[in-house]
Amino acid sequence: MSLFGFGKAQPTSAERISAVENELKVVAEMHTRMVKICTLKCVDKTYREGELSKGEAVCLDRCSAKFFEAHQKISDHLQQQSQQQGGGFGMGA
């Protein structure tokens, strides 16, 4: 039984570390996917210039913002489902 009397045991240090490691893996995978998708969508494949054009930079900014927002909404939804089912430690993404 927990300190607060909710009947759940508190996660151990190893479980917390594992949850944080999983969180980092999810964030790293999201970043990798975002870079790949947004680069394919926004960057001209002919690489005519050494710098990003203004249009490419704006596209990348918007694409990454939308990608992150979608990822956050999905993570929040999954966390709510997990909490309703009584599982998880609620680490968030």
UniProtKB/TrEMBL annotation:
<dbReference type="InterPro" id="IPR035427">
    <property type="entry name" value="Tim10-like_dom_sf"/>
</dbReference>
<dbReference type="GO" id="GO:0015031">
    <property type="term" value="P:protein transport"/>
</dbReference>
<keyword id="KW-0862">Zinc</keyword>
<keyword id="KW-1015">Disulfide bond</keyword>
<keyword id="KW-0496">Mitochondrion</keyword>
<keyword id="KW-0813">Transport</keyword>
<keyword id="KW-0472">Membrane</keyword>
<keyword id="KW-0479">Metal-binding</keyword>
<feature type="domain" description="Tim10-like">
    <location>
        <begin position="19"/>
        <end position="80"/>
    </location>
</feature>
<dbReference type="GO" id="GO:0046872">
    <property type="term" value="F:metal ion binding"/>
</dbReference>
<keyword id="KW-0653">Protein transport</keyword>
<keyword id="KW-0811">Translocation</keyword>
<keyword id="KW-0143">Chaperone</keyword>
<comment type="subunit">
    <text>Heterohexamer.</text>
</comment>
<protein>
    <recommendedName>
        <fullName>Mitochondrial import inner membrane translocase subunit</fullName>
    </recommendedName>
</protein>
<dbReference type="GO" id="GO:0005743">
    <property type="term" value="C:mitochondrial inner membrane"/>
</dbReference>
<keyword id="KW-0999">Mitochondrion inner membrane</keyword>
<dbReference type="InterPro" id="IPR004217">
    <property type="entry name" value="Tim10-like"/>
</dbReference>
<comment type="similarity">
    <text>Belongs to the small Tim family.</text>
</comment>
<dbReference type="Pfam" id="PF02953">
    <property type="entry name" value="zf-Tim10_DDP"/>
</dbReference>
<dbReference type="GO" id="GO:0045039">
    <property type="term" value="P:protein insertion into mitochondrial inner membrane"/>
</dbReference>
<comment type="function">
    <text>Mitochondrial intermembrane chaperone that participates in the import and insertion of some multi-pass transmembrane proteins into the mitochondrial inner membrane. Also required for the transfer of beta-barrel precursors from the TOM complex to the sorting and assembly machinery (SAM complex) of the outer membrane. Acts as a chaperone-like protein that protects the hydrophobic precursors from aggregation and guide them through the mitochondrial intermembrane space.</text>
</comment>
